[in-house]
Design a protein that fits this description.
Cytochrome p450; five-stranded mixed sheet; 20 helices; about 50% helix; binds protoporphyrin IX containing FE; disordered C terminus; about 10% strand; alpha+beta
Length: about 500
């Protein structure tokens, strides 16, 4: 057994960020029964105490689920205070989610100078509102339609196969590392359209430096974002180098129209709205940085949880492995495997990587019977929503079966948000996760090389495991993989019993 040399150093640091497919026929969100009775005495006490914002931030970072549960005190709408923000009103129920995310877009505004600007870029779609936001969404969405995502399956599979081929036959490596490397390769190759080794190495280096420079303190404390503060200068330098790489790629593809035909950047370069409006080079640069930040850590960490919880529940792992190995080699079929799909949804539910959807009000809004005035901050805690025992029985248990059969209310399960800011890449992310997981689980056997359970913490503005999760990866002989394929073909051609 070997300890794997890490493939992409970029992934040794976590990225600093951050459809419901399921709905009931009636569509009415069940209002959660008060959770107060389920809280311990000290959680009830803490809910009432005026805890200083720095302590709240530290607590939220160490134990986000416990923090939100304790602060909620069982109420449908409660407040938290984090440094850099005034009071934040938080909801964690399906009814609150419906009220918040169904509101018209002009009810909300973005806040200039927020942490979003620092990381995603002040001109990116995430940082702007109103007509500007709608325009950018219109021009980017053609990249991410469900049809487009399905067509990318072979690219996702090729990336996973190539990566696995580069590993020793038998090795131990942190699961996060594997998933972050794969998700980064997807972004660099499939989105940016960079395939040559030198180009990939340059991008990887620039992304690594950018990620390492975006420390939580810089994101949370706006006063530190000043040129006299060396860490901020380091961040700006790293951002400038990444932006140079991105702008260079945009300009290169403009002047080489035959290159990177399958990439999403090529689609963006070719997209115009009916009036002929298109994104400028500088806008494209900012959108690419936003896609990197929004799309890397989210997908990598969700895949990490999917594999971790499957390995920690052997019956889940065996069922999943049997399903993917009995499937045909046609990657388009991976997206239709019911158990794999359920494992991905359960991973999205059990730990929502973006911990909340955040809004600032431009106009008053009534949430859980309380009118919030303009200027209020409002957050939907996806952790509370997806951990509601009234909707998801035994919410701390990893049970993919809960996603086979019954449909949940549209606002009870929102891994990709909802409304005008719903994730533009939900189909892309699901397809990426399904194809990558099926590809690696077919070609290698996985087992946990630790008995320590990881805890959930907040890193920057995303959640993730608090420690590396070492896994043993033993590659299967090609003959065994071929045997699976023979079996799959036999099943496919076998006439149905009469
Ligand atoms: C498992 C993976 C993912 C999860 C769980 C996820 C989750 C989310 C959520 C909850 C939102 C809504 C935030 C809000 O309402 O404030 C969102 C928005 C967004 N996501 Fe994702 N996402 C994932 C993958 C991706 C990927 C792969 C990309 C792009 C490559 C991406 C790009 C975006 C963008 C651009 C937005 C902002 C949309 C807007 O402001 O109009 N996401 N995502």
């Amino acid at each position: 057994m070997t300890h794997c040399p890490y493939q992409n150093q970029a992934s040794s640091t976590a990225l600093p960020i951050q459809q419901s497919l399921l709905h009931t026929e009636t569509g009415s969100a069940p209002r959660a029964v008060s959770r107060r009775s389920k809280l311990s005495w000290w959680q009830n006490l803490v809910a009432k105490l005026p805890v200083p914002s720095v302590i709240q931030a530290l607590w939220a970072m160490r134990d986000p689920e416990g923090f939100f549960r304790a602060r909620s005190g069982g109420s449908e709408l409660f407040t938290v205070n984090l440094p850099g923000f005034s009071t934040i009103h938080v909801t964690g129920t399906a009814a609150g989610a419906r009220e918040m995310l169904s509101a018209p877009s002009d009810v909300y505004r973005t806040i200039p100078g927020s942490p979003i600007d620092a990381v995603f870029g002040a001109n990116s779609m995430m940082a702007v509102d109103g007509e500007r936001h709608q325009r950018q969404r219109r021009l980017i969405i053609p990249c991410f339609g469900p049809g487009k995502a399905k067509g990318l399956g072979p690219s996702f599979a090729a990336i996973a196969q190539k990566y696995l081929a580069s590993l020793p036959e038998d090795c131990v490596m942190p699961l996060q590392q594997l998933m972050q490397d794969l998700a980064l390769d997807v972004i660099i190759e499939v989105i940016f359209g960079v395939h040559d080794a030198a180009g990939k190495a340059r991008f990887t280096k620039a992304i690594t430096a950018f990620v390492a420079a975006a420390t939580p303190s810089l994101l949370l404390i706006s006063k530190l974002r000043h040129r006299i503060w060396p860490p901020w200068r380091r961040f700006l330098r790293a951002q400038a180098e990444l932006d140079r790489c991105l702008l260079g790629q945009v300009r290169h593809l403009r002047t080489h129209p035959d290159e990177a035909q399958g990439s999403l950047l090529r689609v963006m370069l070719n997209t115009k709205d009916p009036s002929g409006d298109a994104l400028s080079d500088e806008e494209l640069r900012d959108e690419l940085r936003m896609l990197l930040v929004a799309g890397h850590e989210t997908t990598a960490t969700t895949m990490t949880w999917a594999v971790y919880y499957s390995l920690a529940n052997q019956n889940v792992y065996e069922k999943l492995r049997a399903e993917v190995r009995a499937a045909s080699e046609d990657v388009h079929g991976y997206e239709a495997l019911p158990y794999l799909d359920a494992v991905c949804h359960e991973a999205l539910r059990i730990h929502s990587v973006p911990p909340f959807a955040f809004r600032t009000l431009r106009k008053p809004l009534v949430v859980s019977g309380k009118e919030l005035p303009p200027g209020s901050n409002l957050a939907l805690s996806l952790m509370l929503l997806h951990g509601d025992p009234n909707v998801f029985a035994a919410p701390r248990e990893f049970r993919p079966e809960r996603f086979i059969g019954p449909k949940y209310d549209l606002f009870a399960f929102l891994p990709f948000g909802s409304g005008v800011r719903r994730c533009i890449a939900s189909s892309f992310a699901l397809s990426e996760m399904q194809v990558i997981l099926a590809t690696i689980l077919r070609r290698a056997d996985f087992s946990l090389a630790t008995t320590t359970r990881p805890k959930l913490i907040l890193k920057h503005i995303n959640s993730g495991p608090d420690r590396p999760i070492p896994v043993r990866i033993v590659k299967r002989p090609m003959a065994a993989v071929q045997d699976d394929l023979g079996l799959a073909t036999a099943i496919a051609v076998c006439p149905a019993p009469v």
